[in-house]
């Protein structure tokens, strides 16, 4: 048992709260017992049974649930720093792809890299994420795009999940783009995904989600429908990259197929918003991708005001969002999407937990939740998201145990 | 003597180069002798006389001149995190000021804080800046706004300049806003600045620059002219906060009075750009202020293309730019102002040095320059500004001596 006392502000982030209410408590305390939050509340209400518990003094700092990055492309070969200059000179994401850069170059580098190289690279990034207070990460395949290399990515996630403290949630994104060797026969690639990869992933328990990128240049809604039907038959849950670069009915498709989450949605239209209301699908906002691409941002205010839950994630990947800095994404959600600090925090905790179907276990610090806890060097949530520093995270507990940060 | 070898990419940033050319050299080396860069160039050209010098292996990393943050409000009491939510809800900078928040609340907190409290707070921030690779910082008064407290801020800068490794450049910003006790008699406040403070600052060598905030709600161009004439007579050089929130002819005023730099310029118009061309005045872009205020950005492309030097700085202050993360400001200059990585780096090195009249001594790594040197954990400049991490700075040398980072 451990008592965290002298918490300046505690954000409990209960999933049943509306997004604007992160359950903030001033002068709070929290008790951890066997990896679970046993009690949390105002310090003045601490039950006498806990008063003699070994105490950690939080020195008046902010305490939040471990952050959840619910959309990343964690494992990839190479980087694409030199495309940065091209994009700044005005080349579009699609134009860069057309000249052999973009996702295709990462696919090439990922195929060429060994599992060992990729594992070490992803492990280093997870260490950096953890040091920022991120304790759970969703991670997608989608840079292999053939049987061997899609499985290689998903196997790496399984290995890493067992090897280090950050909990990983794997998503199969074979339908990221049509790989170069199948551009003349898209059907054959879909057949490979549906007839070979999805059954194999199901058999070996290699992923929990199936995702697809529905966009001009990637996959059509009809192709995604076919893929998702197969995935659902094999027990995979659905995510969807939708309406990122154009309004293509992606949000409606997500609601129609019962997706757990719909991601990007920068170009969602009124029909899309209406489709998401009450659908149970979480909208995942990826402000770093908007910043890096110079594109519009998901209209978070309209979605939240309409009652749609909005998660905030990094989209970490080597092309359109080459940063894993989730607190920066949260700050951008405030400054460029008019989310309040409480909405942004809910977006990276309980709403993100919902986007990976874990909202009954993580993302909140109410009693009964897994004790994934972060102490932030700031007196309040407002102060933290306003005074941007390289890294304000001071201490991290995962399943109740303090993690040594590197 | 010390040899830095195995530099993956060296940015020499010569001030005579056009802004888009940061003088990049792949596979470079650099020799430090008595605090000065004795030689820099391709490692294959290293003169034999230096071959036996004690060598530091830069492991293929990027090496840049120590960064220069040429516009900060370093010393202040309190913070204003709770205004962040107000601003996100739509209140303007001017509206917050009108209800007693904004600069006025920082003035109150700065007056109430002791010199010792303020010194310790600013010293901690300088440590964090140094850890990011910032080796020179311009810092303004302007939160005292009376004789005692303006001098208190400037004295703190003098003490800190002597106490720690970051070189400070002090600017007197008594003309930040008209303080509450003088709102009915602006003339009397200007008289205080001109007749009492400027002579005292000159006598005690407390500042190198005189700055003024020319804007609705602050000072008129006519008031600033009067102030600057007095300042120049007393040997102070001129800086100017201009055209931040509206187009008020600030850039033209800066050129007219021979300002070393004109800052903000988000609303600069064509006449203003024309006035700056060839004037010798550096335009200082403050992208974090634009981000935090949700305001437009300085049109860096138009200025650079017209031949105006553009520096990039943080504007660190507790209201409109509560972050000292200069590399983040540089990334925003790329992403939101279409500056190239080389232009952004020149903006935070040689162009920033020009904005504080030190371009013959710092901001470049050509032979003869002060050895303020930063090793960045990235293989290239493009990679560094593209892959945003909390802090990629690994080692810092100030005047040739390695600094212990905390």
Report the oligomer.
homodimer
The radius of gyration computed from the alpha-carbon positions of chain A, rounded to a whole number of angstroms, is: 21 Å
> CATH superfamily of the largest domain in chain A, called what?
Metal-dependent hydrolases
> Main β-sheet of chain A, in a few words?
8 strands, mixed
The N- to C-terminal Cα distance of chain A equals: 25 Å
Largest interface: A-B, 37 and 37 residues
Any guess at the CATH architecture of the largest domain in chain A? Alpha-Beta Barrel
Number of domains of chain A: 2
Shape of chain A: globular
Please give the number of β-strands of chain A: 16
Classify the fold: give the CATH topology of the largest domain in chain A: TIM Barrel
| Estimated structural class of chain A | alpha/beta
Mean pLDDT across all amino acids of chain A: 96
CATH hierarchy, class of the largest domain in chain A: Alpha Beta
Helicity of chain A, as a percent range: 25-40%
Bin the strand percentage of chain A.
15-25%
Short summary of the structure?
The structure is a homodimer of 406-residue chains. Chain A contains 15 helices and 16 strands.
Give a written overview of the molecule.
The structure is a homodimer of 406-residue chains. By secondary structure, chain A is α/β, with parallel strands linked by helices. Chain A has 2 domains: 2-65 and 363-405, Urease, subunit C, domain 1 (Roll); 67-355, Alpha-Beta Barrel (TIM Barrel). Chain A has 15 helices and 16 strands. Chain A has helices spanning 81-88, 93-98, 103-112, 115-131, 147-163, 186-204, 221-233, 250-256, 270-276, 287-293, 300-305, 326-337, 341-347, 350-355, 381-386, and strands at residues 2-11, 24-33, 36-42, 55-57, 62-65, 67-69, 134-140, 167-175, 209-214, 237-242, 261-264, 282-285, 310-312, 373-376, 393-398, 401-403. In chain A, strands 1, 2, 3, 4, 5, 14, 15 and 16 form an 8-stranded mixed sheet that branches. In chain A, strand 8, helix 6 (186-204) and strand 9 form a beta-alpha-beta unit. The longest helix of chain A has 19 residues, at 186-204. The radius of gyration of chain A is 21 Å and the shape is globular. Chain A starts with a strand and ends with a strand. Chains A and B meet through helix 1, helix 12 and helix 15 of A and helix 1, helix 12 and helix 15 of B.
